[in-house]
Design a protein that fits this description.
binds pyridoxal-5'-phosphate, alpha/beta, Aspartate Aminotransferase, domain 1, Aspartate Aminotransferase, domain 2, 38% helix, 2 domains, 7-stranded mixed beta sheet, 368 residues
Length: 368
């Protein structure tokens, strides 16, 4: 599914030197590399402020904490996502309210958003799933009309860009009031362990986020907020400083692989290749097809026998998970998410895929 070692080998000298430098200086916590990385990522994304933290889940949690919501306030998100998105809402005593995704894009259906908004709604949490952005222009305009915050889950979409109808271009994570990303090793920009970051253009929110990520501290040993210990390790920042200049090349490599998949699978009527929306670029964090006419799980087994790994992101939508039964949703409430969980199949997608590998993978798929 991934080839992290192959990617590392190409930048080994630089990465090893950067990590060794942190060790030699024993600069482990809040070290130099962390600040350098935050500035570089702010330049890359055009975000006013970038606050690194321990992981993408914490980024989402800190973002919501910074909005000073009250228990019972409602946050609207989707059931077809990684669990973190819902988990952080629940952990803070907020009420997750779900809206379905669209079948072709896998992201929040803006047509269903308005009807999920109640007087208790305080925020919308769209997910830029598989590397392509949700319809942020429409989501932002609905949020403005109802005076709601927007928190972007850009954990899978760092580097994706959205063009608004006025022609302005915005990076994933920088369009809402707050944006969140993850540097988990397999993400678009991955470190060698856990890492994350929060984006915001508001100076006030940035100060709150920075404080919450550091125990809610204002000045040393004085606390204005109930906070967390959520830092990006200096060693991880050192790795990220080497990798960030390669991010555009990494995205191009994923896009090239996606194009080769698209071409090879164009004549295969049993599967639907990923849709590309007009307003957002696609960074192909995953290349996820829908298997509509044959048994997906048999196809998966056949590919596995042929040495082709695949994954199902995600096999069970979150409203049907045991932990979230208390939300009182039931089977049938989000038919698109439920259908997708039966149809989706993610093929190997990473920066090191060769044409020959893609040819082999698609050939095996077509034999079935
Ligand atoms: C990876 C991911 C997260 C969480 O990031 P971690 O760094 O693993 O905590 C949150 N949301 C989505 C959509 C993700 O893919």
């Amino acid at each position: 599914m991934t080839d992290l070692y192959g990617q590392y080998c190409k930048i080994k000298t630089e990465v090893d030197a950067a990590m060794q430098c942190v060790v030699d200086q024993a600069d482990f916590v809040n070290g130099n590399a962390v600040g350098t990385f935050a500035e570089a990522l702010a330049r890359y994304t055009g975000s006013g402020h970038v606050i690194p933290c321990a992981n993408g889940t914490d980024a989402l949690r800190i973002a919501l904490m910074a909005l000073d919501l009250q228990p019972g306030d409602e946050v609207v998100t989707v059931p077809f996502t990684f669990v973190s998105t819902l988990e952080v809402i629940a952990l803070l005593g907020l009420k997750p309210v779900l809206v379905d995704v669209t079948a072709d894009t896998f992201v929040m259906d803006p047509d269903q958003l308005e009807s999920a908004i109640t007087p208790k709604t305080k925020a919308i949490l769209p997910v830029h799933l598989f590397g392509q952005c949700a319809d942020m222009e429409r989501i932002m305009s609905i949020a403005r009309a109802h005076n709601l915050y927007v928190v972007e889950d850009a954990c899978q979409a760092l580097g994706a860009a959205v063009t608004f109808s006025d022609g302005t271009v915005h990076q994933a994570g920088t369009m809402g009031h707050v944006g969140c990303t993850s540097f988990f090793p397999t993400k678009n920009l991955g470190c060698f362990g856990d890492g994350g970051a929060v984006f915001t253009n508001s100076e006030e929110l940035a100060a709150t986020v920075r404080s919450i990520a550091n125990h809610g501290m204002s000045r040393k040993y004085y606390y204005d907020h109930i906070g967390l210990n959520s830092r990006l390790d200096t060693l991880q920042a050192a790795v990220l400083n080497v990798k960030l200049p390669h991010l555009n090349d990494y995205i191009r490599a994923r896009q090239r692989a996606a194009r080769l998949y698209d071409e090879a699978l164009a004549d295969c009527s049993d599967i639907i290749t990923p849709a590309k929306v007009s307003y957002s670029t696609h960074t192909y964090h995953q290349y996820t097809v829908r298997v509509t006419k044959v048994q997906r799980d048999s196809l998966r087994a056949r590919l596995s026998d042929a040495g082709v790994p695949t994954m199902i992101y995600y096999p069970c939508p979150l409203h049907l998970q045991k932990a979230y039964q208390y939300l009182d949703y039931k089977q049938g409430d989000f038919p698109v998410s439920e259908m997708l969980s039966q149809q989706v199949l993610s093929l190997p997608m990473h920066t090191e895929l060769t044409s020959a590998q893609i040819q082999y993978i698609t050939k095996q798929l077509k034999i079935f």
